[in-house]
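agent: user wants the structure for Response regulator transcription factor from Streptomyces doebereineriae. delegating to structure tool.
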Amino acid sequence: MTEGAEPKPARVVVADDQTVVREGIVMLLGLLPGIEVVGAAGDGEEAVELVAELAPDVVLMDLRMPRCDGVEATRRIRAEHPGTQVVVLTTFADDESLFPALKAGARGYLTKDAGGDEIVRAVRSVLSGDAGLSPSIQRRLLERLSDPEPPQPAAAEAPDGLTAREVEVLALIAEGLSNQEIARKLHVSTATVKTHINNLFAKTGIKDRAQAVRYAYANGLVRPPMGGIT
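agent: tool returned. relaying C-alpha cells verbatim.
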C-alpha cells in the first residue's frame, strides 16, 4: 500500500434471520467507512456456505437463528475457514450466549444497540488480531473473572429436566423478585428471563408465579420461611 493510501475495505458478510434487521444492518454498513458488504445470510447454514464461496474477512453473526445457530456456525467457520473472523452482533448479552460464542471462536461480541463507529472498531480490531468487544461485554467478562461462581445445582438433582439456570430463575421467583429484578441480578435481559420462565413453566406444568413458588418449596429448591408455607 502506498503512503497515504486508504486501507483496504474489510469484506463483511452479515448473518441474521430477521429480514428487516438484516437489511437494516447491511444498509448501515454500506454507509460506514472501510466496510464492504459482500453477502448476507438468513441463518447459520447459509453463513457457512457464503464464507466458503466469498472468503470474507469478517462475519457479523447473530446467535439465535434456525437450521444452524450462530454458535455452531461460528465453530464451523473458524474450523474450516480460519482466515475469516467472526464478530457476534446479537440482542443477548447473558452468560449463556456470550461464553459459548467466544469458546466457538468469535473474536468480537457486540449487542445490537452498538453504533456504526463501534462496529467499525470491532471489525478493525479482530482483523488486527485484537478482540472486538463492546464496553458492556468487557465489564461482564471482568465481573465473571473477579466474582466466584455461585454454586449450581447438579443437573441430576434438578426435577423435571430443569437446567441449572432455570432452577436459579425459579428460586428468584420464589424470593419474590420481578422479571426486571431477576434480569439485573443475573446480568441478562428481561427477554432472556422470560424465555427461561416460559421453558420452566412448560417443563413443570406450572401456570403462574404462585404455583412456581409452591413448586420451588415442594421440590426443595428454596427453603420455606419460618412457619412454613400455606
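agent: one observation worth passing along. DSSP finds ten helices and six strands in the chain.
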